[in-house]
Design goal:
With 219 residues, this protein is of the alpha+beta class. Helices cover 16% and strands 38% of the residues.
Length: 219
């Protein structure tokens, strides 16, 4: 598990393709890797990867064809910058929201515009994810925990403050760029619970419409 609070911005140092999968080496300057052991989890642009050959300069990770195809990591090139976060420990501060590192889909940047010292982005999510994105709810974009400012259809807006622009790769996003998206797990659990409750109690008043009206789900 992760929090969506980026701990360092790393760099792709090397890429080795093996047929349909790949091994990537990441430089991780600024990330404390002293306690990282082979097999530990590290989130790279929001994707949970298993670290191999970790040392003080960085780590490697094997990426399956599934991971390459279902996330933006398949588009990475040497020297590309990436957001990095170590997995939660029992003593970690939960400053963002709970993030699994399992990408739900890929979004596309539709608009970028300055807003005072911040930057406002409009991103289109896959239609299948739109129901889980709610105004003032949480979403993880390229590993960064963010608050949704507005929602229209499958598109949503984010306001990125100066600190986040400086501490992550989001400042480099331009119209047409793609990003990894992970929706808030609470929305998924609510839907699953609702389906079970509706099956058990056909007359229940807790419905999709009720949850959407109270800000828990989007119609």
């Amino acid at each position: 598990m992760f929090t969506g609070i980026i701990q360092a911005v790393g760099r792709v140092a090397d890429i080795h393709r093996h047929g349909g999968d790949a091994t990537l080496r990441f430089e991780a300057n600024g990330l404390d890797l002293q306690q990282v052991q082979p097999g530990d989890s590290i989130a790279v642009n929001g994707v949970c990867l298993t670290a191999i050959d970790p040392d003080q300069s960085g780590f490697s990770a094997d990426l399956s064809a599934e991971t390459l195809g279902r996330s933006t990591l398949g588009n990475l090139a040497v020297n590309d910058r990436v957001n990095l976060e170590l997995a939660l420990t029992p003593s970690s501060r939960l400053g963002g929201h709970l993030v699994s590192g399992h990408v739900d889909g890929i979004g596309t940047v539709l608009e970028r515009r300055p807003e005072a010292r911040s930057v406002r982005f409009r991103i289109e999510a896959p239609a299948s994810l739109a129901r889980y994105i709610a105004e003032k709810g949480s979403i993880c974009v390229d590993g960064v925990s963010l608050t949704v400012n507005a929602v229209q259809g499958a598109a949503f807006e984010l306001n990125i403050v100066p600190h986040t622009l400086q501490a992550t790769t989001l400042a480099a996003l331009q119209v047409g760029h793609t990003v990894n998206l992970e929706v808030d797990q609470i929305a998924r659990y609510l839907e699953r619970l609702l389906q079970g409750e509706a099956a058990a109690r056909p007359g229940t008043t807790i419905t999709h419409a009720f949850l959407a009206e109270h800000g828990y789900l989007k119609n």
